[in-house]
Amino acid sequence: LGFSNYAGAEASREQGSMRQKMVTAADPVTFRPYQASDYDSVASLWTDINRELAPDGMEELFEQYITAIIDVELKLLPEIFSEAKRSAFWVVEHANEIVGCFGIESRSVTDTELRRMYLDTGYRGAGIAQRMLDHAQAEARAFGFSKMILSSAQIQEAAVAFYRKSGFRQLGTEIAQGMTAKQAGGGLTRLHFVKV
C-alpha cells in the first residue's frame, strides 16, 4: 500500500484568523490523537479553512456548510473515528497550538478514506502535508487496509495536484448539488481518487 493526500485548502483569498507562523526544525509539529478538549481549536480550524475555500458568491452556502459539519461531524468525532471501527483522527500541534488535522475512516475490510486533512495557511510548504499523509498511510496499513480513497473539491487545485503527485488515480467526478458532511453542494465539482 502506498496511498497519499494533501492538507487541503490552498486558496488565494485570506479570511478568518489564519496563523502566519513558519515551522523550523528546532520547533517542529507533532501529531497526536484528537481529544475532546481539542473541540474549540478544531472547530476554529475547520471554520477558517472552509471560509478560505469559499468561492466568490458562495460565502453564505459555506457558512451553512461550516455549521453543518461542526454540528454533525465534529460533535461526533470520537464516535465516527473510533479505533474500534478501525478509524482514527489526529491533530497537528505546533507550540501547543492546533494547526492542522486529518483522519482515516474505515469504508470496508480493505478500504479506508482519508478525511478532513486540513493545515493552517502559515504551515503549508514546509513538508508537513507529506508527513501527515505518511502518518495516515502507516496507520492505515497497521489497521490492515490495502486501499485509500479520498475526495476533494475541484476548487482545491493545490490539493488535487498533490494527490496526483502522490500516486492517487482519479476514479471519477460528481457535481455536488446537495450539502453533505463531505461537500458544500452548490454545483461544485468533486473529484474522487484512489491509491492501492
Give a structural overview:
This protein is an alpha+beta fold and 196 residues long. Helix content is 30%, strand content 27%. The protein has helices spanning 39-53, 59-72, 77-80, 128-143, 157-165, and strands at 30-33, 88-94, 97-106, 111-119, 147-153, 169-176, 188-195. The protein has a 7-stranded mixed β-sheet, sandwiched between helices. A hairpin with a 2-residue loop joins strand 2 (88-94) and strand 3. The longest helix is centred in the C-terminal third of the chain and has 16 residues, at 128-143. The chain starts with 29 loop residues before the first strand and ends with a strand. Residues 2-21 have low confidence and may be disordered.
Spell out the helices and strands N to C.
Answer: EHHHEEEHEHEE
Enumerate how many helices there are, as a single number.
5
Helix amount: 25-40%
Quaternary status: single chain
> Low-confidence parts, pLDDT < 50 over ≥5 residues?
2-21
- Main beta-sheet strand count, sense and barrel state: 7 strands, mixed
Number of strands: 7
Mean pLDDT: 87
